[in-house]
Amino acid sequence: MEIRNKIEYPNGDWQNGNTKNVTFIVTEDCQLRCRYCYIIGKNTKNVMSFDIAKESLEYLLTRRDIFSEDSVILDFIGGEPLLEIETIEKICNYFKFRSFELDHPWFDRYRISLSSNGLLYDNTRVQKFIAKNRNHVSLGISIDGTKQKHDNQRIYPNGTGSYDIVVKKIPLWLQQFPNASTKVTISHEDLPFVSESVLHLCELGIKNININCVFEPVWKENDEKIFEEELIKLADSFITNKLYQNHFCSFFSRTIGKPIQSTQNWCGVGRMLAIDPNGNFFPCVRFAPYSLTNKSARCVGNIKTGIDKNKLRPFLSLDLPFQSEQECIECEVATGCSWCQGANYDLSTNDSVFYRATSICKLHKARVKANNYFWNKYDRIIREQRKSNEIHAPIYST
Amino acid sequence: MNFYIIGRNSMKTKKAVGSVTPEERDEIQNLFERKSAITELFKSLPDINKESYDSIYEKLVTDLGRTTRSFQGWWDDKGHKYSWESHPEGHWEIEFETCEIFLVH
Amino acid sequence: MKYTHQFIQLDSFAPSFCYYQNNNFDESNYELIKYHQLHEVLSEAEQINKSIIVIYSNKDLPTEYHTLLDRVNHEKIYPFKLIDQFKSGILILNEENLSQVSVLQRDSSRNIILRLSQKKIDNLFEIICSLEGTFSKLTLILLEIDKFSQEEICSYKEQLVKIRKKIVKWLSENKTAEISILTDRLLLRHMNNCDAGIRHFTLAPDGNNYVCPAFYFDKNLSSFGLINSENTNLRLLKIDSSPVCSICDAYHCKRCVYLNKKITEEINIPSQEQCIISHEERNQTKELRADIVSTLKNQTELPVIPEIDYLDPFELLKHKKHDLIRNSNISNDITQELIDLALLTDREILIKVYEQNKNILNFLKNSQH
Question: Which pLDDT score, from 0 to 100, does residue B87 have?
């Protein structure tokens, strides 16, 4: 039997990436006040009405000259999007109806995506929505690891943690979405818990674990040492317990830690479209007013006047060399060093998107070292396994 | 012979009985997507206002019929072409990522 | 930054000579440059041999200002109302002045800046013909460029065709025929843009130095145009910082960074209309070159302008064709004057070569011929 390890074969891009990602900011409210959340402007006032969403969809569906992608992902975000599940349902219903009525190519080429804190996952209305859209919906729950790590950051306004409630939703979630992924965010205080948190998530049955370190300058001296130690511990556990067979952890990737291979921009800013409750368009949710601390929002149009192609132009012009310092361009281990365009802009010294925040530089380098450790050990183990199984399948090459 | 489709890795016990070409896989995947889209629009109809409902109902029913026939036709056609192993209580599944066909029983 | 010249805007009523607008003629907000600042700047410029361009307004200056300015060699930019006062310099012609152009005496040494909105585009050829004989160089500034519709751009192109043919006729009659939008590109082998903030800056009446007067007048954008060490926007002024401009060969384009910031919100990204208009002009210059070579049998070595299949270099970025273009433009840099290279481009390979051996670049240049 072919040895096919999940760590090497995470799910690929749907539709080979020729997909328009449209994010509806359905609410700016959330039950939680996660410490690391970049959405600093949470409020109960700004909620997307169905009329705004409907007008947005009309624009998207009737302007094929602008939106010519083969497929679409309708992404719902907040705050906490499940607070507005009724509106989300109406939006999806309208999309299905209208795209069918227009014979639009997106009618049978769409996905629905939600990122949730999980607190309302088993709510009747939410469950009904999932059942009605079973073949199209993907719902991610953010659970950050152990109770200690999760409750460090993901707290209610009164300071209490949300782990005990969220963890109860996980079995139902995994039953309905066996290959679901979680998004884990790491900040300075979380570093000592990285390894045990990832392993805990594996124990819970979560197979796809996507992890990011926050891009904001929260990192302290020696954080990179702690991070590297934790990742090596994790690497050892992943291999010893053969977790790589059925689990994917985004920390470990064959492609990171090399000199620059591509000058393409890291994220799809400008290619995606975020729509706020007022019907304003943004190149990404991170450029909406509620998620910027230091800078003004970068609006690229609205439902009345449409996309302003000139305001969108800088985002589509972005690529790596034009926002990076020479040190980053020449870095020997540059690949996999990520950035968030919104964070770049918010932290920029010049109010420009042509700026790259590099707070995670040392952490990236620590990750590269641990990643190399992991793959060297993994390759050794796999070679031995193949020998003992007398399998002649080719060894995965880097 | 019943047939189902799995989009991703399935936890069911299954046996590989053949494969199709990427082009053939695309055909059934497109049909599956359309069938799912029509089915899920049907599920949404009770929540849509009556006027809109009436305006598309007939077109939707026609499309469903056509798509279901094509869907069924694909399995019949490929089953015959490749002579896959079958089982009276089993069904075929396709793994979209690898184009493999599995017999599940 | 190595500044070769400096603009001095004497007061807040100074007319615009470029893409920006000055609509603030409220007496209560009038600001005149401080005498001591003017004196200081003029003295310094004399000492370091920096060229000075002074922008005059209709408002009378105190006598001591005139005395000070008359002592120093400088270029003047002045509004139509002062045509009798200044016999040399650069005249600004706005739309409202067009009805009075008949008073302009024939002067084939005059430089004119003609500022027009899209409302006048259909009359552009007529307007230029009416100015025949009154200028040696006409610089056309199209206002509110982002508001040009597709139809207006098409009309503009039709006007360019007519103007091009007129230029050929003038040249055949040995008449002066420099019209920026068509003739500038003829002789250029590399970018020759406004370069505000790179080669020059402006001292404004408030005593601050700005990239150009536009940033003084537009209070919303002032901070982006201040010349000081805290303004990190300035690093984005150079062409190497622009993904679009660094692959473009519409070398005559002004690359107005103020318009960039105003329209796209990024100082280094031009608007789509700016790019398309510049490329329509560039393409007409290509035709002009062909006319000159064939019709006039002109032996001057005019640089070849290659055939291209786009009007907006941004399309190359979208389709990932830019790396090829970027590499080929390096060869254009080698043809420049050595002293300009450090200003125009910080492409690492050229600077490193120059630092290693100053003779290598000369060798490369000479071997091109």
Answer: 86
The enclosing H or E element of A81 equals: none
Give the model's pLDDT for residue C341.
44
Full DSSP string of C206-271: TS-EESSHHHHH-TTTGGGGB-STT-GGGGGSSGGG-TTGGG---TT----HHHHHHHHS-TT---
Question: Are chains A and C in touch, 3+ Cβ pairs below 8 Å?
Answer: yes
Tokens (6 digits) for A30: 């959330």
Instruction: Return the residue of A nearest to B60 by Cα.
Output: A100
Is there a contact between A24 and A76 (Cβ–Cβ < 8 Å)?
yes
Which chain A residue's Cα is nearest to C272? A310
Nearest CA in chain A to B52: A97
Could you tell me which residues of chain A have a Cβ less than 8 Å from any Cβ in chain B?
11-12, 89-90, 92-94, 96-97, 100-101, 107-110, 132-136, 178-179
Return d(Cα A333, Cα A320) in angstroms, integer: 14
What letter represents residue C2's amino acid? K
Contacts of B60 in chain A (CB under 8 A): 100
Q: What is the DSSP string of C77-90?
A: EEEGGGTTT-SSSE
CA nearest A313 in C: which residue?
A: C264
Non-local CB neighbours of A213 within 8 Å, separated by 6+ positions:
A185, A186, A187, A219, A227, A360, A363
Strand partners, A47: A27
The residue behind tokens 């199984």 is: A389
Residue A205, preceding peptide bond in cis (omega within 30° of 0):
no
Give yes or no for residue A51 having a pLDDT over 90.
yes
Question: How close, in Å, is residue A96 to chain B by CA atoms?
Answer: 6
Chain A positions touching C231 (Cβ under 8 A) are 350
Does A240 score more than 50 pLDDT? yes
Cα–Cα distance, A71 to A74 (Å, whole number): 10
| Closest-CA residue to A259 (of A319, A334, A320, A327) | A334
**pLDDT recorded at residue C289:** 94
Q: Is C2 on the interface with A (CB under 8 A)?
A: no
What is the pLDDT, as a whole number, of residue C123?
96
CA distance B31 to B76: 14
CB proximity B98 to A under 8 Å: no
Burial class (CB in 10 A: 0-12, 13-18, 19+), B19: middle
- Predicted confidence band of residue C340 (pLDDT cuts 50, 70, 90): very low
What is the ipTM for the molecules in this complex? Answer: 0.90
Pairing of strands A306-307, A301-302: antiparallel
* H/E element, A212: strand A208-213
Beta-sheet pairing, A71-77 with C111-116: unpaired
Given pLDDT bands bounded at 50, 70 and 90, which one contains residue C1? low
- Domain spans in chain C, listed from the N-terminal domain onward: 313-369
A273 within 8 A of A281, measured Cβ to Cβ? yes
Q: Are A108 and B56 an interchain contact pair (Cβ–Cβ within 8 Å)?
A: no
Question: Do chains B and C have 3 or more beta-carbon pairs under 8 angstroms?
Answer: no
The residue of chain A nearest to residue B59, with distances taken between CA atoms, is A101
Beta strands per DSSP E along C29-164: 51-55, 75-79, 90-93, 111-116, 137-142
Within an 8 Å CB–CB cutoff, is residue C57 touching chain A?
A: no
DSSP line for chain B: -EE--BSS---S--EEEEE--HHHHHHHHHHHHHHHHHHHHHHHGGGS-HHHHHHHHHHHHHHHHHHHHHHHHHHHHHHHHHT----TT-EEEEETTTTEEEEE-
CA distance A30 to chain C (A): 31
Mean pLDDT, range C325-338, rounded to an integer: 47
Contact residues of A toward C, CB < 8 A: 263, 298, 309-311, 313-314, 316-319, 322, 326, 348-354
Interface test with B, best of A14, A72, A97 (most B CBs within 10 A): A97
Sign, Cα dihedral of C15, C19, C24, C29: negative
